[in-house]
Amino acid sequence: MKKKQGEPRLAYILIFSRPLVVLLILGVGISLYRMIGVNILPLLWIIISSFLLSFFFFVSTSVGKPLWYLQLLGDLSIVTAIIYFTGGYDSVFSILYFIPLILSTILTGIRGGFLITAAISLFYTGILIFHFIGYIPYSISENINAQSIFYKGYIHNFSFYIVFLLSSYLVRRLKKETEKVDIMKVTTQEIIESLPEKIFIIDKNKNIVYRNDSTVLIDLDVLKDREEIEIDGKTYKASITELRNGNLIMFSLRDITEERKREEELKIKEKIAFVGEISSGLAHEIRNPLSALLGCVETFKRVKEKEKKEKLLKLITEEANRMERIIDTFIRYAKLRRPVFEEVNPEIVVKAQADGWMKKGRRLNINTQGASSDFKLDPELFLMLFKNIMENAFEATDGKDPVEVNLIFQRNNFILEVCDKGKGIPASIGDKIWSPFFSTKKGGVGMGLALVKRIAESHFAKINIESKEGKGTKISVSFPKL
Prior knowledge:
This protein is an alpha+beta fold and about 475 residues long. The protein is built from twelve helices and twelve strands.
């Protein structure tokens, strides 16, 4: 017979409850049985037998052999003996047959339950026959006729089989539900154990109640304060989820080692591509003034007129200054330092710079929305970003219309908006304006907006640009509250 889950526990319950039930039924009523003339010696032997049977089955169960059929037959024999020695036909203990009947269906299945039910039917019918022929040690009713014996046997046997059918139905239904639950448990377990993530579940006392990988050792207190953690040379991304209203906490570790390697490789490739782009742009920007410079030098060697020489010297100086300006701008971009964050009110920085521009005759309006407050910024780099955006706006309007500056203070971020009514940016070059050395202005170096982008990224800020040709441009830089 296939071993069932929870079998040993049920066996021990049956073993220890058997003598207690017999003792309760017979031991308590022994004095009463003596008064009505029942021989108590067989009853005492029944009690002793129940203890001996329980001891025997305790030993067999302890070695892994519950011997269910023998236990059930033993119980069946004890019940039959109780009924036989307490009146047979008149005994009230015939209901005890239902105990081994139901247990047999649960423990041995429908087939075993049917065999035990048939045995009960035979045993009880035998008792009635013995009573009818007068071979019974104790009887209350006298002159029992065959019709009474038949009806008594019919009702009891009918009840035995009805109870067997009901218990079989319930056992079968219980078995199906148990199988469903087991399948769900196995499926859930397999799913969790097959996940690439490492799962830990702890209770309020920090005891680990579940883990799907026992090879990973980790300090869960350290994990609570980190989003990423290194374990045995691997990088894991950690996430924490509360279960059962916070009574349990689930830690999930996802291996992102390969992901981080790919990111690093991509960064290196981007840096190499960026260096190549910068080098190409720088070479292109220097080549033009250098060619002009070399041309002027060659011409200067051949020219003898003083006036022409002075003009050539002026051109040489201008081209040299242009080259110096290009190289200086490139160095500022390439060596842009990391921000040193301070608690700064951006409104104060913007208005101080705006006052200087307005004194020089430049037109701009400043609007503040929300409660002005401090943000963590690098004041020098923030001012550089603001000046570069404004220089583009001033050049776009050419002094015809004022530049609108909006300072928007929100709970978790600060937005700097610069709006102009200039020519706008063509859609075809919208993605190129942030690239180093890209410029549509004559003589422009094209590093202003590239610097703006790098400074914004170093402040974890997001840039948004809206532009329509002939109507103007709006650049928004959103700084988060760090």
